[in-house]
Amino acid sequence: MVAGYIALTNGGQDVLAVQQGALSDIPSTDQANWRSVAMSYPPVDNATQIRTSPVFTVSPDGATVSMSFNVEDLPSPWAAMNLAAYATSRSKSMASGGLALPSGAWLETTDAAASLLVNALFAIQQGWTAAPVTSQAATGMFVDYSFDELQAAGKAITAFWQANLAARKACIDGIRAGKIVTSAQVDAALGV
Fold this sequence. Notes:
Layout: E1 5-9, E2 15-20, E3 34-40, E4 49-51, E5 55-58, E6 65-68, E7 71-73, H1 76-95, E8 99-100, E9 106-107, H2 111-125, E10 133-136, E11 142-145, H3 147-176, H4 183-190
Parallel strand pairs: 3-6
Antiparallel strand pairs: 1-2, 1-3, 4-7, 5-6, 8-9, 10-11
Helix pairs in contact: 1-3, 1-4, 2-3
C-alpha cells in the first residue's frame, strides 16, 4: 500500500518532483530535500463539480509541502447531463428496491418479479391455472396468492412505479429548467 506522496524541493519554495511513496523509500543520503506531502481533498458534487490539477505549496521555512485542489463547477450543459443521468440511476434503483404493503407484506418490484406477477394474473384469466398461485418470497418462504391478492399486488406495484416515474420526470424537468442544480437537490426531489 502506498503511504502517500513525497516531494523533492530545491531546499526553498520550489517543488521539483512529486512521486508516490514515503520518505523511507528514499535513501537516507538523498532525503535532505524530500518532504512528505500533506494532501487536502475538498468535497465535490461529482455530478456538477470537478477537482482541478493539484497545487503544491511549500511552507515559508521549507519544512512542509501541501497539495490541494481547487473545485470548479462543470459547464452547465455537462452538469445538467450528469444530474439527469444521476436522477435516472437513483430513480431506477428506487423503483426496483421493493414495496411494503399496508398488510406488512413485502413485494419485490424488480422487472422480473413484476413479470411473474403479470404472468400469474394472465394465466388465471386465461384459465391455464387456478388460484391460489404459489410463489417463493425473497425470504425463501412459499406463499399462496389468491387472484384478488395478485391484483392488489399488481395495482400496488403499478402505482409505486408510476409515482417513481412522476418524481423522476419532475426532477429531470427541474434540472432542465435550472431549478435543480446539485445531487443533493436530485435526492430531495426523488425522496431519497
